[in-house]
Amino acid sequence: MKLNPRKHHALSLLNHHHETLNSIPPVQPHIRPANSVVNIGIIGAGLSGLYVALMLEYLQDPKFDYELLEANPDRIGGRMYTHRFSSSKHDYYDVGAMRFPLIPWMQPAFDLMTYLGITLESGLLAPFIASDQLDNNILLFNNQILSRKELNESQQATPPEYDPFRTGIVELKDSPGKIIDDQFLEFKKQLVEDWDKGWSNLMKYDSWTARQYMLFGSPLPLTLNLISYLEMVYGSNFTGIYDHALPEIVLDVMNFEHEAPIEWFRIEGGADILVLRAASMLSHKAKCGKRVTSISPAKCTGHEFPTGIELTINGVEKFKYSHVISTLPFTCLSLVDTSNCNLSWSIDTAFRSLKYIESVKIAIKFTERWWEKLPKKQLGGESTTDKPMHTVVYPSYGIGGSSAVLIVGYAWGQSAARIGPMVHGDKVQQCFLNTILRDLTEMHDIRDSMTGNIDYSILPGLMVDHHAWDWGNSEFSIGTVTFLVYKRCYPD
Protein backbone atom coordinates (compact mmCIF):
# COMPACT_ATOMS: atom_id res chain seq x y z
CA MET A 1 0.00 0.00 0.00
CA LYS A 2 1.56 3.29 -1.15
CA LEU A 3 -0.91 5.37 0.86
CA ASN A 4 0.57 6.92 4.00
CA PRO A 5 -2.40 6.86 6.44
CA ARG A 6 -0.61 8.70 9.26
CA LYS A 7 0.47 11.53 6.97
CA HIS A 8 -3.04 12.02 5.63
CA HIS A 9 -4.47 11.81 9.13
CA ALA A 10 -2.11 14.51 10.40
CA LEU A 11 -3.01 16.79 7.49
CA SER A 12 -6.72 16.23 8.15
CA LEU A 13 -6.29 17.25 11.79
CA LEU A 14 -4.33 20.37 10.82
CA ASN A 15 -6.93 21.38 8.25
CA HIS A 16 -9.70 20.92 10.80
CA HIS A 17 -7.80 23.05 13.31
CA HIS A 18 -7.29 25.82 10.75
CA GLU A 19 -11.00 25.80 9.97
CA THR A 20 -11.81 26.45 13.64
CA LEU A 21 -9.66 29.61 13.66
CA ASN A 22 -11.55 32.74 12.70
CA SER A 23 -8.34 34.63 12.08
CA ILE A 24 -4.68 34.69 12.96
CA PRO A 25 -4.35 35.86 16.58
CA PRO A 26 -3.02 39.43 16.82
CA VAL A 27 0.67 39.38 17.68
CA GLN A 28 2.83 42.43 18.32
CA PRO A 29 6.03 42.04 16.28
CA HIS A 30 9.22 42.05 18.28
CA ILE A 31 11.99 43.78 16.39
CA ARG A 32 15.30 42.09 17.11
CA PRO A 33 18.56 43.98 16.87
CA ALA A 34 20.49 43.26 13.69
CA ASN A 35 22.76 40.20 13.91
CA SER A 36 21.31 39.23 17.31
CA VAL A 37 21.37 35.54 18.22
CA VAL A 38 18.09 33.66 18.53
CA ASN A 39 18.57 31.52 21.62
CA ILE A 40 16.33 28.45 21.59
CA GLY A 41 15.48 26.35 24.62
CA ILE A 42 14.68 22.71 23.82
CA ILE A 43 12.78 20.98 26.61
CA GLY A 44 13.53 17.27 26.68
CA ALA A 45 16.57 15.39 25.40
CA GLY A 46 14.71 12.41 24.09
CA LEU A 47 15.02 11.56 20.41
CA SER A 48 12.68 14.41 19.40
CA GLY A 49 14.72 16.98 21.32
CA LEU A 50 17.96 15.66 19.88
CA TYR A 51 16.43 15.73 16.40
CA VAL A 52 15.51 19.41 16.81
CA ALA A 53 19.08 20.17 17.91
CA LEU A 54 20.47 18.26 14.92
CA MET A 55 18.30 20.30 12.55
CA LEU A 56 19.49 23.56 14.09
CA GLU A 57 23.12 22.49 13.75
CA TYR A 58 22.49 21.32 10.19
CA LEU A 59 21.52 24.91 9.29
CA GLN A 60 25.01 26.10 10.31
CA ASP A 61 23.53 29.52 10.98
CA PRO A 62 25.43 31.49 13.65
CA LYS A 63 22.23 33.42 14.40
CA PHE A 64 20.75 30.33 16.05
CA ASP A 65 21.90 28.90 19.35
CA TYR A 66 20.23 26.37 21.61
CA GLU A 67 20.26 24.60 24.95
CA LEU A 68 18.95 21.09 25.58
CA LEU A 69 17.28 20.73 28.98
CA GLU A 70 16.67 17.20 30.30
CA ALA A 71 14.89 16.45 33.59
CA ASN A 72 16.43 13.00 33.99
CA PRO A 73 19.70 13.38 35.92
CA ASP A 74 21.06 10.02 34.77
CA ARG A 75 20.56 9.72 31.03
CA ILE A 76 19.18 11.20 27.83
CA GLY A 77 17.09 9.42 25.22
CA GLY A 78 13.65 9.35 26.79
CA ARG A 79 11.82 6.27 25.57
CA MET A 80 14.87 5.13 23.60
CA TYR A 81 16.31 3.21 26.52
CA THR A 82 18.59 0.15 26.52
CA HIS A 83 19.48 -1.75 29.69
CA ARG A 84 22.80 -3.60 29.70
CA PHE A 85 23.34 -6.37 32.21
CA SER A 86 27.07 -6.31 31.45
CA SER A 87 29.51 -5.11 28.81
CA SER A 88 29.21 -8.38 26.86
CA LYS A 89 28.15 -7.89 23.25
CA HIS A 90 24.54 -9.08 23.41
CA ASP A 91 23.92 -8.86 27.15
CA TYR A 92 21.16 -6.25 26.85
CA TYR A 93 17.55 -5.61 25.96
CA ASP A 94 15.70 -2.57 24.70
CA VAL A 95 13.44 -1.28 27.44
CA GLY A 96 11.81 1.21 25.09
CA ALA A 97 11.67 1.21 21.29
CA MET A 98 13.16 -2.01 19.97
CA ARG A 99 11.91 -2.59 16.41
CA PHE A 100 11.35 -0.39 13.39
CA PRO A 101 9.02 -1.35 10.51
CA LEU A 102 9.98 -0.11 7.06
CA ILE A 103 6.66 1.55 6.24
CA PRO A 104 6.01 5.02 4.74
CA TRP A 105 5.39 6.97 7.93
CA MET A 106 8.55 5.53 9.50
CA GLN A 107 10.77 6.72 6.63
CA PRO A 108 11.97 9.84 8.53
CA ALA A 109 13.30 7.56 11.27
CA PHE A 110 15.29 5.54 8.72
CA ASP A 111 16.54 8.75 7.11
CA LEU A 112 17.83 9.84 10.51
CA MET A 113 19.53 6.48 11.00
CA THR A 114 21.24 6.83 7.63
CA TYR A 115 22.36 10.35 8.50
CA LEU A 116 23.89 8.99 11.72
CA GLY A 117 25.62 6.10 9.95
CA ILE A 118 23.24 3.44 11.25
CA THR A 119 22.89 1.36 8.10
CA LEU A 120 22.95 -2.24 6.95
CA GLU A 121 26.37 -1.60 5.44
CA SER A 122 27.79 -0.38 8.75
CA GLY A 123 26.33 -3.39 10.56
CA LEU A 124 24.48 -1.16 13.03
CA LEU A 125 21.12 -1.72 11.33
CA ALA A 126 20.06 -5.35 11.34
CA PRO A 127 16.93 -7.40 10.65
CA PHE A 128 14.45 -7.81 13.47
CA ILE A 129 12.83 -11.24 13.41
CA ALA A 130 9.15 -10.46 13.88
CA SER A 131 8.10 -14.09 13.53
CA ASP A 132 10.13 -17.27 13.84
CA GLN A 133 10.75 -18.67 10.36
CA LEU A 134 10.10 -22.18 11.67
CA ASP A 135 6.64 -21.05 12.84
CA ASN A 136 7.43 -22.42 16.29
CA ASN A 137 6.34 -19.30 18.18
CA ILE A 138 3.78 -20.24 20.79
CA LEU A 139 0.21 -19.21 21.50
CA LEU A 140 -1.09 -20.14 24.95
CA PHE A 141 -4.72 -19.22 25.54
CA ASN A 142 -7.35 -20.83 27.72
CA ASN A 143 -4.65 -23.32 28.83
CA GLN A 144 -4.36 -24.59 25.24
CA ILE A 145 -0.87 -24.50 23.67
CA LEU A 146 -0.35 -24.27 19.91
CA SER A 147 2.57 -23.25 17.74
CA ARG A 148 1.94 -20.79 14.91
CA LYS A 149 2.38 -23.66 12.50
CA GLU A 150 -0.20 -25.79 14.29
CA LEU A 151 -2.64 -22.87 14.42
CA ASN A 152 -2.28 -22.20 10.68
CA GLU A 153 -2.70 -25.89 9.88
CA SER A 154 -5.86 -26.12 11.99
CA GLN A 155 -7.44 -23.18 10.15
CA GLN A 156 -6.49 -24.59 6.75
CA ALA A 157 -7.77 -28.08 7.51
CA THR A 158 -10.96 -29.54 6.07
CA PRO A 159 -13.15 -28.59 7.81
CA PRO A 160 -11.22 -25.68 9.35
CA GLU A 161 -10.93 -25.36 13.12
CA TYR A 162 -11.83 -21.81 14.09
CA ASP A 163 -11.90 -22.36 17.84
CA PRO A 164 -8.48 -23.94 18.41
CA PHE A 165 -8.30 -22.72 22.01
CA ARG A 166 -11.57 -24.41 22.99
CA THR A 167 -13.26 -21.21 24.15
CA GLY A 168 -16.75 -22.34 23.23
CA ILE A 169 -17.48 -19.05 21.44
CA VAL A 170 -20.05 -20.19 18.88
CA GLU A 171 -19.62 -17.07 16.71
CA LEU A 172 -16.05 -18.08 15.79
CA LYS A 173 -16.77 -19.04 12.20
CA ASP A 174 -13.67 -17.67 10.51
CA SER A 175 -10.06 -16.80 11.30
CA PRO A 176 -9.51 -13.77 13.57
CA GLY A 177 -7.68 -11.92 10.79
CA LYS A 178 -10.55 -12.41 8.34
CA ILE A 179 -13.16 -11.33 10.89
CA ILE A 180 -11.30 -8.11 11.68
CA ASP A 181 -10.59 -7.42 8.01
CA ASP A 182 -14.29 -7.73 7.16
CA GLN A 183 -15.17 -5.21 9.88
CA PHE A 184 -13.02 -2.42 8.45
CA LEU A 185 -12.78 -3.41 4.78
CA GLU A 186 -15.18 -0.77 3.43
CA PHE A 187 -13.48 2.05 5.36
CA LYS A 188 -10.06 1.00 4.09
CA LYS A 189 -11.29 0.65 0.52
CA GLN A 190 -12.78 4.16 0.53
CA LEU A 191 -9.64 5.71 2.04
CA VAL A 192 -7.42 4.12 -0.60
CA GLU A 193 -9.68 5.13 -3.50
CA ASP A 194 -10.30 8.73 -2.36
CA TRP A 195 -8.75 9.82 0.94
CA ASP A 196 -10.84 12.97 1.47
CA LYS A 197 -14.12 11.26 0.71
CA GLY A 198 -13.19 8.17 2.71
CA TRP A 199 -12.01 10.25 5.66
CA SER A 200 -15.24 12.25 5.64
CA ASN A 201 -17.22 9.02 5.84
CA LEU A 202 -14.99 7.61 8.60
CA MET A 203 -15.47 10.81 10.62
CA LYS A 204 -19.19 10.07 10.79
CA TYR A 205 -18.18 7.37 13.27
CA ASP A 206 -15.67 9.50 15.18
CA SER A 207 -17.94 9.39 18.24
CA TRP A 208 -17.67 5.60 18.33
CA THR A 209 -15.08 3.36 19.85
CA ALA A 210 -14.04 0.42 17.71
CA ARG A 211 -15.83 -1.86 20.18
CA GLN A 212 -19.08 0.12 19.91
CA TYR A 213 -18.88 0.07 16.13
CA MET A 214 -18.33 -3.68 15.97
CA LEU A 215 -21.21 -4.20 18.41
CA PHE A 216 -23.80 -1.77 17.07
CA GLY A 217 -22.68 0.05 13.91
CA SER A 218 -21.13 -2.59 11.70
CA PRO A 219 -23.08 -4.24 8.86
CA LEU A 220 -21.60 -7.46 10.32
CA PRO A 221 -22.14 -6.92 14.08
CA LEU A 222 -20.11 -9.05 16.48
CA THR A 223 -20.87 -10.21 19.99
CA LEU A 224 -19.01 -8.87 23.01
CA ASN A 225 -17.48 -12.31 23.67
CA LEU A 226 -16.10 -12.51 20.14
CA ILE A 227 -14.69 -8.97 20.26
CA SER A 228 -12.93 -9.71 23.56
CA TYR A 229 -11.46 -12.87 22.02
CA LEU A 230 -10.19 -10.98 18.96
CA GLU A 231 -8.71 -8.30 21.20
CA MET A 232 -6.67 -10.87 23.09
CA VAL A 233 -5.69 -13.35 20.39
CA TYR A 234 -5.40 -11.27 17.22
CA GLY A 235 -2.40 -9.06 16.64
CA SER A 236 -1.65 -6.74 19.51
CA ASN A 237 -2.59 -8.89 22.52
CA PHE A 238 -3.64 -5.58 24.06
CA THR A 239 -6.64 -5.71 26.37
CA GLY A 240 -8.67 -2.55 25.86
CA ILE A 241 -7.39 -1.61 22.40
CA TYR A 242 -10.90 -1.62 20.93
CA ASP A 243 -11.96 0.99 23.48
CA HIS A 244 -10.05 3.55 21.42
CA ALA A 245 -11.50 5.61 18.60
CA LEU A 246 -12.64 3.72 15.52
CA PRO A 247 -10.53 5.92 13.15
CA GLU A 248 -7.41 5.14 15.23
CA ILE A 249 -7.97 1.40 14.90
CA VAL A 250 -8.73 1.60 11.17
CA LEU A 251 -5.54 3.61 10.58
CA ASP A 252 -3.54 1.26 12.79
CA VAL A 253 -4.70 -1.71 10.73
CA MET A 254 -3.90 0.10 7.47
CA ASN A 255 -0.39 1.04 8.60
CA PHE A 256 0.71 -2.57 8.45
CA GLU A 257 -1.12 -3.71 5.33
CA HIS A 258 1.24 -3.99 2.39
CA GLU A 259 1.41 -6.15 -0.71
CA ALA A 260 4.85 -7.43 0.27
CA PRO A 261 5.76 -8.58 3.79
CA ILE A 262 6.90 -5.70 5.99
CA GLU A 263 10.60 -5.62 6.77
CA TRP A 264 11.44 -5.00 10.41
CA PHE A 265 14.77 -3.74 11.68
CA ARG A 266 16.61 -3.26 14.96
CA ILE A 267 19.75 -1.41 15.99
CA GLU A 268 22.69 -3.70 16.71
CA GLY A 269 23.97 -3.08 20.22
CA GLY A 270 20.76 -1.47 21.45
CA ALA A 271 18.34 1.20 20.27
CA ASP A 272 20.03 3.83 22.43
CA ILE A 273 22.93 3.74 19.94
CA LEU A 274 20.69 6.05 17.89
CA VAL A 275 20.52 8.47 20.83
CA LEU A 276 24.23 8.30 21.57
CA ARG A 277 25.16 8.89 17.92
CA ALA A 278 22.82 11.87 17.67
CA ALA A 279 24.21 13.38 20.88
CA SER A 280 27.80 12.89 19.71
CA MET A 281 27.15 15.08 16.65
CA LEU A 282 25.96 18.05 18.70
CA SER A 283 28.25 20.89 19.74
CA HIS A 284 26.23 21.41 22.93
CA LYS A 285 25.72 18.61 25.43
CA ALA A 286 22.30 18.17 27.00
CA LYS A 287 22.01 19.60 30.50
CA CYS A 288 20.69 16.75 32.64
CA GLY A 289 18.79 17.17 35.89
CA LYS A 290 17.16 20.35 34.57
CA ARG A 291 13.44 19.82 35.15
CA VAL A 292 11.33 22.62 33.72
CA THR A 293 8.69 23.55 36.29
CA SER A 294 7.30 26.72 34.72
CA ILE A 295 6.97 28.35 31.30
CA SER A 296 6.02 32.01 31.11
CA PRO A 297 6.46 35.09 28.90
CA ALA A 298 9.64 37.04 29.62
CA LYS A 299 9.45 40.81 29.65
CA CYS A 300 12.33 43.18 29.27
CA THR A 301 12.66 46.70 30.62
CA GLY A 302 11.53 49.23 28.06
CA HIS A 303 9.34 46.75 26.16
CA GLU A 304 5.56 46.67 26.53
CA PHE A 305 5.25 43.15 25.16
CA PRO A 306 7.17 39.95 26.04
CA THR A 307 10.52 39.67 24.34
CA GLY A 308 11.08 35.99 24.98
CA ILE A 309 10.13 33.02 27.11
CA GLU A 310 11.30 32.33 30.64
CA LEU A 311 11.77 28.79 31.92
CA THR A 312 11.98 28.03 35.61
CA ILE A 313 14.21 25.04 36.34
CA ASN A 314 13.61 22.88 39.41
CA GLY A 315 11.52 25.70 40.84
CA VAL A 316 14.61 27.90 41.35
CA GLU A 317 16.77 28.73 38.32
CA LYS A 318 15.36 30.98 35.61
CA PHE A 319 16.55 30.82 32.00
CA LYS A 320 15.40 33.20 29.28
CA TYR A 321 15.13 32.21 25.61
CA SER A 322 14.03 33.85 22.39
CA HIS A 323 12.05 30.74 21.55
CA VAL A 324 11.18 27.46 23.28
CA ILE A 325 10.43 24.07 21.74
CA SER A 326 8.88 21.49 24.05
CA THR A 327 9.29 17.83 23.14
CA LEU A 328 7.75 16.58 26.40
CA PRO A 329 4.94 14.05 26.36
CA PHE A 330 1.70 15.85 27.24
CA THR A 331 1.55 13.75 30.40
CA CYS A 332 4.72 15.50 31.59
CA LEU A 333 3.90 18.88 30.07
CA SER A 334 0.63 18.96 32.03
CA LEU A 335 2.72 19.06 35.23
CA VAL A 336 4.54 22.21 34.10
CA ASP A 337 3.05 25.54 35.21
CA THR A 338 1.86 27.26 32.01
CA SER A 339 -0.74 29.47 33.71
CA ASN A 340 0.91 32.66 32.42
CA CYS A 341 1.02 31.50 28.80
CA ASN A 342 -2.63 32.37 28.06
CA LEU A 343 -3.30 28.98 26.54
CA SER A 344 -6.85 28.35 25.41
CA TRP A 345 -9.22 26.16 27.37
CA SER A 346 -9.17 23.57 24.58
CA ILE A 347 -5.36 23.31 24.67
CA ASP A 348 -5.37 22.97 28.45
CA THR A 349 -8.02 20.29 28.10
CA ALA A 350 -5.86 18.46 25.56
CA PHE A 351 -2.94 18.48 28.00
CA ARG A 352 -5.12 16.85 30.63
CA SER A 353 -7.10 14.52 28.43
CA LEU A 354 -4.80 13.04 25.79
CA LYS A 355 -4.63 9.36 26.60
CA TYR A 356 -1.25 7.72 26.99
CA ILE A 357 -1.33 3.97 27.35
CA GLU A 358 0.87 2.14 29.81
CA SER A 359 3.57 -0.35 28.92
CA VAL A 360 5.63 -2.74 31.03
CA LYS A 361 8.68 -4.79 30.01
CA ILE A 362 10.42 -7.44 32.07
CA ALA A 363 13.65 -9.17 31.00
CA ILE A 364 15.59 -12.00 32.60
CA LYS A 365 19.23 -12.85 32.08
CA PHE A 366 19.80 -16.62 32.05
CA THR A 367 22.97 -18.68 31.98
CA GLU A 368 22.06 -20.12 28.58
CA ARG A 369 19.67 -19.59 25.67
CA TRP A 370 17.41 -22.42 26.75
CA TRP A 371 14.62 -21.36 24.34
CA GLU A 372 16.88 -22.26 21.41
CA LYS A 373 17.46 -25.77 22.76
CA LEU A 374 13.84 -26.88 22.99
CA PRO A 375 12.37 -29.54 20.67
CA LYS A 376 10.54 -26.63 19.04
CA LYS A 377 13.32 -24.05 18.91
CA GLN A 378 12.41 -20.39 19.32
CA LEU A 379 14.67 -18.45 16.96
CA GLY A 380 13.40 -14.90 17.23
CA GLY A 381 9.83 -13.69 17.01
CA GLU A 382 7.43 -13.66 19.93
CA SER A 383 4.99 -15.89 21.77
CA THR A 384 1.72 -14.65 23.25
CA THR A 385 -0.58 -15.76 26.04
CA ASP A 386 -3.48 -14.72 28.23
CA LYS A 387 -1.21 -15.21 31.25
CA PRO A 388 -0.07 -12.03 33.06
CA MET A 389 3.25 -11.83 31.15
CA HIS A 390 1.27 -11.57 27.86
CA THR A 391 4.14 -11.51 25.36
CA VAL A 392 7.57 -13.15 25.31
CA VAL A 393 10.01 -11.59 22.83
CA TYR A 394 12.94 -13.78 21.74
CA PRO A 395 16.07 -11.80 20.84
CA SER A 396 16.84 -11.41 17.14
CA TYR A 397 20.50 -10.96 18.04
CA GLY A 398 23.07 -13.39 19.38
CA ILE A 399 21.24 -16.45 18.09
CA GLY A 400 23.37 -19.49 18.83
CA GLY A 401 25.63 -17.45 21.12
CA SER A 402 26.19 -17.36 24.86
CA SER A 403 24.42 -14.14 25.91
CA ALA A 404 20.99 -15.13 27.15
CA VAL A 405 18.67 -12.18 27.82
CA LEU A 406 14.99 -12.79 27.19
CA ILE A 407 12.07 -10.36 27.37
CA VAL A 408 9.78 -12.55 29.47
CA GLY A 409 6.96 -10.06 29.83
CA TYR A 410 5.72 -7.31 27.54
CA ALA A 411 2.28 -5.86 28.20
CA TRP A 412 0.34 -2.80 27.07
CA GLY A 413 -2.76 -0.92 28.20
CA GLN A 414 -4.99 -2.45 30.82
CA SER A 415 -2.74 -5.51 31.05
CA ALA A 416 0.25 -3.29 31.85
CA ALA A 417 -1.77 -1.33 34.40
CA ARG A 418 -2.45 -4.57 36.25
CA ILE A 419 1.10 -5.84 36.43
CA GLY A 420 2.69 -2.39 36.79
CA PRO A 421 2.23 -2.33 40.59
CA MET A 422 4.42 -5.44 40.74
CA VAL A 423 7.34 -3.37 39.38
CA HIS A 424 9.31 -1.37 41.93
CA GLY A 425 12.09 0.71 40.46
CA ASP A 426 13.74 -1.69 38.02
CA LYS A 427 12.83 -4.92 39.82
CA VAL A 428 9.77 -7.15 40.07
CA GLN A 429 8.25 -8.48 43.27
CA GLN A 430 9.51 -12.00 43.88
CA CYS A 431 6.01 -13.49 43.94
CA PHE A 432 5.33 -12.18 40.42
CA LEU A 433 8.76 -13.25 39.21
CA ASN A 434 7.91 -16.76 40.41
CA THR A 435 4.63 -16.57 38.47
CA ILE A 436 6.46 -15.57 35.28
CA LEU A 437 8.95 -18.43 35.61
CA ARG A 438 6.11 -20.88 36.20
CA ASP A 439 4.16 -19.61 33.17
CA LEU A 440 7.30 -19.67 31.00
CA THR A 441 7.83 -23.29 31.99
CA GLU A 442 4.28 -24.26 31.05
CA MET A 443 4.26 -22.23 27.83
CA HIS A 444 7.46 -23.89 26.60
CA ASP A 445 6.54 -27.31 27.95
CA ILE A 446 9.81 -27.73 29.86
CA ARG A 447 9.92 -31.25 31.27
CA ASP A 448 12.17 -33.44 33.38
CA SER A 449 14.14 -35.73 31.06
CA MET A 450 13.71 -38.68 33.42
CA THR A 451 10.07 -38.47 34.54
CA GLY A 452 8.59 -36.57 31.61
CA ASN A 453 6.75 -34.28 34.03
CA ILE A 454 6.69 -30.48 33.87
CA ASP A 455 9.77 -29.32 35.78
CA TYR A 456 9.32 -25.95 37.45
CA SER A 457 12.82 -25.98 38.95
CA ILE A 458 14.83 -25.66 35.72
CA LEU A 459 14.30 -21.99 34.83
CA PRO A 460 14.84 -20.61 38.35
CA GLY A 461 18.12 -22.53 38.33
CA LEU A 462 19.19 -20.85 35.09
CA MET A 463 18.25 -17.32 36.15
CA VAL A 464 21.08 -14.85 36.82
CA ASP A 465 19.38 -11.44 37.08
CA HIS A 466 16.36 -9.52 35.92
CA HIS A 467 15.30 -5.98 35.03
CA ALA A 468 11.86 -4.44 34.70
CA TRP A 469 10.40 -1.10 33.69
CA ASP A 470 6.93 0.38 34.03
CA TRP A 471 6.68 3.32 31.63
CA GLY A 472 3.43 4.49 33.20
CA ASN A 473 5.15 4.83 36.56
CA SER A 474 8.23 6.61 35.23
CA GLU A 475 8.25 10.31 36.17
CA PHE A 476 9.96 11.15 32.89
CA SER A 477 7.33 9.58 30.62
CA ILE A 478 4.11 8.82 32.58
CA GLY A 479 2.98 6.53 29.79
CA THR A 480 4.19 5.23 26.46
CA VAL A 481 2.27 6.26 23.35
CA THR A 482 -1.02 7.99 22.61
CA PHE A 483 -4.19 6.69 21.06
CA LEU A 484 -7.11 8.76 19.79
CA VAL A 485 -10.08 8.90 22.15
CA TYR A 486 -13.50 8.89 20.56
CA LYS A 487 -15.07 12.29 19.96
CA ARG A 488 -18.03 11.67 22.25
CA CYS A 489 -15.58 12.05 25.15
CA TYR A 490 -13.44 14.91 23.85
CA PRO A 491 -14.95 16.87 20.94
CA ASP A 492 -11.78 18.50 19.55
Could you explain how this protein is built, in words?
The protein is an alpha+beta fold and 492 residues long. The protein has 3 domains: 32-76 and 286-353, FAD/NAD(P)-binding domain, CATH 3.50.50.60; 82-131 and 356-473, Polyamine Oxidase, Chain A, domain 2; 149-255. Helix content is 30%, strand content 20%. It has 15 helices and 23 strands. Strands 10-2-1-14 form a 4-stranded parallel beta sheet, covered by helices on one side. Strands 8-7-17-18 form a 4-stranded mixed beta sheet. The protein has a 3-stranded antiparallel beta sheet with strand order 5-9-6. Strand 12 and strand 13 form a beta hairpin. Helix 2 packs parallel to helix 10. The longest helix is centred in the middle third of the chain and has 18 residues, at 176-193. It is globular, with a radius of gyration of 25 Å. It starts with a helix and ends in a 9-residue tail after the last strand. Mean pLDDT is 90; it is low at 486-492. One of its GO terms (molecular function) is L-amino-acid oxidase activity. The chain crosses the membrane at residues 37-56. Residues 47-428 form the Amine oxidase domain.
